[in-house]
């Protein structure tokens, strides 16, 4: 896996997913595996575009679930070809949705895969609709736990705060990632 930290990656083709991916939990893993599998089917590189720190850690001082180094280990295990890490700082977060979309064009994505409610750009004004006007954009179905509740980084942070380590660990899906070794 090649890692591009705060730089521009130019590709001729790709399949792309974008997000904070803090924790690389079971929902993230399913979305990333879908991206990797679609890239393999189309015989193009898979790309994960992520942020450091995660926006919720930056804005709301929430607990960080995975360091960048841990994230990269998991993404490598999931078979990702390229990871782009954008430094999430005042310069980056002030980019408009349109400017961000322009940047994504250098990755030449044939497909972009994202989960429901994905938002981006200054003030979170960019929507899935904006992405789909420029790229073939697919919304991945939300992954829930066995009790039917949505898996999210926020939920896992709350579980860890409430000493529910075992359920948090299950939703993080670390056992599954170990099996990929
Ligand atoms: C160029 C850019 C600018 C952003 N600016 C803001 C912002 O001003 N306020 C905010 O809360 N989030 C901002 N975000 C973060 C997004 O709302 C969102 O958290 C990020 O795209 C990751 O998506 P995810 O939370 O679904 O993983 C920005 C994201 C991007 C790509
Ligand atoms: N349970 C899930 N099932 C499918 N896709 C998901 C799931 N959780 C997140 N995603 C998708 O993964 C990408 C990264 O999401 P993000 O990092 O915001 O995760 P999150 O768990 O929703 O985090 P947070 O709770 O901090 O908002 C987004 O495209 C998002 O829609």
UniProtKB/TrEMBL annotation:
Q: Extract one GO molecular function annotation from the record.
A: riboflavin kinase activity
Q: Name one Pfam family in it.
A: FAD_syn
Residues in FAD synthetase domain copies: 12-154
User: Is Amino-acid biosynthesis tagged as a keyword?
Assistant: no
Q: What top-level branch of life does the organism fall under?
A: Bacteria
* PANTHER family documented for this protein: RIBOFLAVIN KINASE, RIBOFLAVIN KINASE/FMN ADENYLYLTRANSFERASE
This protein is called: FAD synthase
Source organism = Peribacillus glennii
């Amino acid at each position: 896996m090649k890692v591009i930290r705060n730089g521009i990656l130019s590709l001729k083709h790709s399949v792309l997913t974008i997000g904070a991916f803090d924790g690389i939990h079971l929902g993230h893993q399913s979305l990333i595996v879908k991206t990797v599998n679609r890239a393999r089917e189309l015989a193009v590189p898979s790309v994960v575009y992520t942020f450091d720190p995660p926006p919720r850690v930056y804005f709301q001082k929430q607990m960080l679930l995975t360091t960048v180094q841990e994230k990269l280990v998991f993404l490598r295990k999931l078979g990702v070809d390229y990871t782009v890490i954008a430094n999430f700082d005042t310069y980056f977060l002030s980019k408009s949705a349109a400017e961000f979309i322009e940047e994504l064009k250098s990755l030449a994505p044939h497909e972009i895969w994202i989960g429901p409610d994905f938002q981006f750009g200054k003030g979170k004004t960019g929507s899935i609709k904006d992405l789909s006007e420029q790229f073939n954009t697919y919304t991945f179905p939300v992954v829930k736990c066995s009790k039917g509740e949505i898996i999210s980084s926020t939920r896992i942070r709350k579980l860890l705060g409430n000493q529910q380590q075992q359920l948090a660990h299950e939703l993080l899906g670390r056992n599954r990632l170990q099996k990929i070794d």
